[in-house]
Each structure stands twice: as C-alpha cells, then as structure tokens.
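For practice. Any example?
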Amino acid sequence: MIVAAFITESAMHDAAAELRQVPGCAVETYGATQPQNEEGAWSILPLVMLGGGMVGGLGGFGMQAYATTISYPLDIGGRPDLSWPSYIPATFELAVLGAVLAGIFGYFITMRLPRLYDPVDDAVAMRDVMAGGHVVVACTSDISGVREILARHDPLSIELVGS
C-alpha cells in the first residue's frame, strides 16, 4: 500500500485519476473536505433506501390486508374487509422505517464499517488529513510504477505502508 500526501486537492485528484488507469490498482482518496467533482462518484445508497422503503410499505400494507381480510375479518358498520384508506398512515410509517433501516445498514456495508483498524492509519500522512491535508492511497502489486506516477504529481511525501 502506497500513501502519498499532496498540497492541493487538484493535485490529489490528478494523481488519483492517473492511478485509476493502472490495471489492478485500487485507489482511495482522503481529505478534510468533501470531494467536489470526482468522476464516478455515485452512490448506490439512494437505491437501497428506495428498495427498503418499498419493502417496508408493501410489507405494512400486506400485513394489514392479510389481518383484516383473511386472518381476522371484522364486520364494523358495513365497512368492506379490504378498507385500504385506513391502512395509509401505518403503511407510510413502515415505508419510512424500512427506508431508514436500509439506509443505515446500507451505509455501514458500503463504508465497510465497523472497521476498527486499517493499515493505512499507520501512515504519517494520514495524521494531516483532518487538518486540511490531501492523501491518495494506492493498493497494487506494481509499487515502482505507482511510485513513478505519484512522483510526477509533486507530492509532499510518498510512503510504503503495510506489506
């Protein structure tokens, strides 16, 4: 694992873009601020939350429909067994609950949490990230080629972490 610290965010993005062209090289960027326009920076999390909301809403509606039509039908004032307008509040609440739970668990899965230790945390450059530093981490077997690419972008430091 190679860790390189940069002065500016644009230099970090240029180096990361070039490293992403290297086959078999996994690239991660770290910075104190959210990246502005990183190519390919889309998240699957909204789709996971949409799916969780749909499952929660359909599950809540189905549960109420099953309970009032099949499991325990009641004749209350001539109301039909499948009186769907009365299901709307609970269906909405269960849809929101499903979306929130899917969002929480989806976030943990996509961010690989809880991750209590990562070898990149041992790098000296990672100590400056929260103070405004910009770091690129490249995991590859071609260490010399990646080191040459990083050196072209004028980093503050390049260090080899882990094995």
The chain has four helices and four strands. Strands lie at 2-6, 26-31, 134-139, 157-160. The CA atoms of residues 4 and 12 lie 9 Å apart. The mean pLDDT is 90.
